[in-house]
Each structure stands twice: as C-alpha cells, then as structure tokens.
Design goal:
By secondary structure, the chain is an alpha/beta fold. It is built from 16 helices and 12 strands. The radius of gyration is 21 Å and the shape is globular. It starts with 6 loop residues before the first strand and ends with a helix.
C-alpha cells in the first residue's frame, strides 16, 4: 500500500494576541484534520494544542518604531532564523497571523525561495488606517488573505487580491465551562477588570499610571477589587509593580477561562487599546480605552495614521462610543474622572453597552470566523 504523505502547516505569529487567534482557528481545523504535522512561532495557546514553537515568542515581541530601530539586528537575525526553519520544515501552507511587520517580511522571503509553499495571512494589515499602498506588494507573496472586518474588503478587491471576510473569532459564540469566581475573589466587592497590555514595554508604561488611578479610586470608593488580566509570561512583572505600591485590593489572573468569567462579572473595564476591546464589548461591560507610547513613536504614528480613533468599535461607529485616553490624556487623574463619571451614572453605562452591541452585530460574520478560516486552510491543502 502506498504511503500517503503527511501534510504540513507552519503557523507564524508575532505576539500573544496573534497566538490566541491562531490557536482558535487551528483548534477548529484539527476537529476534522487529525493527520497534519505542525510547527510554529507561537505562544502558550498554540503550545496548549501540542504545537511546538521554534523559539520563545517574547524574543520577537518588540513594540514601536524606535524599539524596532534599536533591535533591528536582533529582528533581522530572527527573520533569517525563521525563514530557514520554515524552509527546512517545508510546509504545504505557511499560515501567518497578524504582526505584519514581522510575519509578512518572513512570508515574502519564504515565497521568494519556494513559490510552491501556499501563503495564507490571517488579520489583514490595517491598510484603512495607514499605508494603503502595501496591498500591491502583499499581493505578490500572499496567496490568500483572511479579513476580520467586512469594511476591509474593498481595499483588497480593488487590487484583485484573493481575500475572504471571515469575521473576528472573538465575536464567535463560545460555550464555556461554569466557574464560580466567588470562590476566587471577595464576594461583597464589585470587580473592575484592568488590561495593562500583553507586551512588557506596554506594561512598563501603563502600570505606574494604572496603580496611581487605583489609589485615587481607593481614596473615594471602598467597594471595588481591581483584577489585572495578564499573560502567564508577565504575571510576575505585574505582581512586582503591585507589590511595590502596597495596594491590597488588586488581584492578577492569567488563566483564560477565569479571565473570561471575571470579565463577564465585572462592572467596568479599563483597557489598553487593542483586540481586548471586542471581548469587553462582547461581555457587555462598559469601558474606557488607554494608550501611551514614547513621544518619538507617537509623532511617527500621528503623521501616518488617517483615522480619527484608535479603537475598532469607535472606528466602525464613526464616533467615540468608548472614551479614548491617549498619550497626554492617559494619566491617573483623567482615568479616575472618566471611570467615576461612568460608575456614578448607570444610565451612561447602559447607553454605552447598547451602542456597542449594535456595532458588534454589524462586525459579525454570518459563519463563525474559525470555521471560515479553517475551510480556507483545507482548500489550500487540497490544491
């Protein structure tokens, strides 16, 4: 009997959020495709699926233009190492996820060296925010691009690039095991979820500001516990910041199931701008968004960006539904005033929730994102 050659997929991510998105697609894909060999650049979520990473994800998680400049030789070395590992693995598909400044540079080199490897990219670069001209270049080395939002489609259709709107996996319906978080946190206190970011550089900027905000809250309110949502990798870092300030009503969680249930039970969320905003809105929790970067990075970004808002909900709504405290506005006093304004006005919290639910409905895809993305992977394995 003739041996059937095992199909191979290399999964390439560049940061924890990409690892999480990739794992959701691969988990769905694995249901009907058991005999596939995998290798990755991934984090704890792909590892939980039994997929080996060729190195630690934190080795490439650099943020901001100036940090990239500082680490340019390290990054180029990692790109070369990654390209070599992919060529040696010789996959049928290179599945790249988000982090375009890293993943697409790798994909371009891989495709140049071996055009028979099919390249599928998940999470389109935000060409609607900046650098729209990238589509022409990307088309040359990416066979198919999977879009999270329907409003992205015209940018890729215009260049006749093979694409599909699959939706955002964080908006898919999920069935979760029941966890009694009353066993974890103090019963008589309301929970405020805090998201300081998934990169060390973000955490280092935001943690001192967030802890000063909590001190202001503690001077005015006694009935809240602040739950910091962390990756396992940065648990100790966040803990060290909290311990240094001797604040007693802060907890840290890193387990994804507990995070989800904690968010659902929260009365409010304070979050670094990013994908997590969709999760917060899906949980029907009112929130504000924060972001701060060093001044040089900010000047570069401000000169390139062509949208008014940082948050995807606000961008889709074309109005500021979720307050954005960015750069100089991102300080403890402003955060405290904004959060107080909400928690003292239940009708304001309800109004925000109602508006975000309408936007989420518009952003959802008819079929779950993971199912649609999985079907594209199957299609390209059969070509």
């Amino acid at each position: 009997m003739e041996d059937v050659q095992v199909k191979k997929i290399f999964i390439l991510t560049g940061e924890p959020s990409g690892d999480k998105l990739a794992s959701k697609v691969i988990q769905e894909f694995k249901k009907d495709n058991a005999k596939i060999e995998y290798l990755s650049v991934g984090g704890e979520n792909l590892k939980a699926l039994g997929i080996k990473s060729i190195y630690d994800l934190k080795d490439i998680t650099y943020i901001g233009f100036t940090n990239v400049f500082k680490n340019i030789f390290k990054i180029n070395k990692k790109i070369n190492e990654t390209v070599k590992a992919i060529q040696n693995f010789n996959p049928d598909i290179l599945f790249t996820v988000d982090s375009p400044d890293f993943t697409l540079r790798v994909a371009e080199r891989v495709k140049k060296q071996n055009s028979s490897i099919k390249t599928i990219h998940y999470v389109a670069p935000q060409v609607w925010v900046w650098r729209e001209g990238r589509v022409k270049k990307i088309k040359k080395f990416i066979d198919h691009i999977l879009l999270l939002f329907n409003f992205e489609k015209p940018y890729f259709d215009k260049e006749n690039m093979s694409n599909e709107f699959v939706g955002h996996p964080l908006l898919d319906q999920s069935s979760e095991s029941k966890i009694d978080i009353n066993q974890i946190f103090e019963k008589n206190k309301a929970l405020i979820s805090v998201f300081p970011g998934s990169r060390k550089s973000e955490i280092d900027i935001l943690m001192p500001i967030l802890l000063d905000f909590i001190k202001l809250m503690n001077e005015n309110y006694q009935d809240f516990i602040y739950i910091f949502h962390s990756t396992k990798q940065h648990y100790d870092l966040i803990q060290s910041y909290i311990k240094s300030q001797n604040i007693n009503n802060c907890e840290i969680i890193s387990d994804d199931k507990i995070k989800s249930h904690t968010l659902n039970k929260s009365v409010f969320a304070v979050a670094k701008s990013g994908t997590v905003s969709l999760e917060i809105c899906k949980s029907k929790v009112p929130s504000i968004i924060l972001y701060k970067m060093n001044f040089l990075n900010y000047l570069i970004v401000r000169s390139l960006v062509k949208v008014k808002f940082a948050n995807i909900i606000n961008i889709a709504a074309k109005e500021e539904i979720i307050p954005e405290l960015l750069q100089s506005k991102c300080n403890a006093k402003n955060i405290f005033e904004s959060v107080s304004n909400f928690i003292n006005n239940p009708s304001k919290m309800k109004a925000q929730i109602n508006k975000t639910q309408l936007i989420l409905e518009k952003l959802k895809s008819p079929t779950p994102s993971t199912v649609s993305a999985s079907k594209i992977l199957i299609k390209y394995l059969q070509i």
